[in-house]
Amino acid sequence: MKIIHILQGKAKPDSLSGVNKVVHWMATSQARLGHDVEVWGLAVSMALPPHSREYNLRLFPMTRLRVTLSPEVKAAISQLEPDTWVHFHCAYTLSLPAIAQFLRKRGLAYGVTPHGLYASAGLKKSRWKKRLWIAFREAEYLRSAAWIQAIGVSEVQEILRIAPGTRVVLIPNCQEPLPPRACPVSGKMRRPLIGFCGQLNMQHKGLDLLIEGFAAYKAKAGAGELWLIGDGRDRPRLERQAAKSGAMPYVRFFGAKHGEEKFDLVASLDAFIHSSRWDVLPGACMEAAALGRPLLISRETNMAEYVERSGAGLVLDETSAAGVARVLDRASRLYEANELQQMGENARALIEKEFRWEENARSFIAAIAAARRTI
Predict the structure, then answer these.
(1) What is the CATH number for 237?
(2) Collapsing DSSP states into helix, strand and coil, what is residue 368?
(3) Exposure winner among 158, 200, 232, 349, fewest CB in 10 A?
């Protein structure tokens, strides 16, 4: 069976886009099980990225209107065998529903992974635009999918609200193991070091809550520093908030980092924090856990059950600035008692035991087989 993953992008594993990373590792794990896997990237530039890969990467130009398909895409689809499985990644795009419509004309089955983009909390922003978009552009695309992948538990019902009656399969994203590293960053630092890594999206990732909660924690003589690794449109607002709160001397903005430099910074942290207002399974949390960093997370990350069961960190008692301040205080006391490090080792073990890409690939193939039996 041939499997084709389609996304806008080039499936670069070092991309700031979590979708690109997931597609790369999903395709890699399926290829390692012996399946014929291709990734089709819709892109502006046709230059292949330099990263190594165990699957075939094909790039196709996007048309100016997006709702029309390039001759190259049409020709490629026309050559597909009847048992080919096509899987789309992401949401709110013009190109993917257009390709899906062409597949339906050929009688080819497909699946969809929206990567958490239909989260009800996320729909509150530009609410009517998104709902109209879904109704007129993506509703039929979703209803016609043989199955839709949910990454986190909370996503299942959110998908069903948008596409009632569809087959939704819960398959968590996973994480490649990362070798242990001791990477203290040079310079004098106040401990414990608490950090976030990812796009600086204030509302989605709850970074305003993080800054406000950290400031409240410091106002009560809390120790340590807060590191924000990453970039995004909300960085200036977060910098102003940190300055206004009085916490700026203890907050460091690193900007976007990649590869080994990023891993070195995350590995230098005493704990990794993610106070998302909504999410599925944040890849940054899993990277941090794979590096042996204990996790301080909101329940909205969909990782709380795993973290609590394995002792891999702490869960906010509420997703608020006060909740952040309390979890930082707890983490600081555990750090002083030399108990935080063991949580980090538990986090590494959690990734190695429960978030293996091989299991993701097996579940994905099983979902395809189950869907084919009902087609």
Answers:
(1) 3.40.50.2000
(2) helix
(3) 349
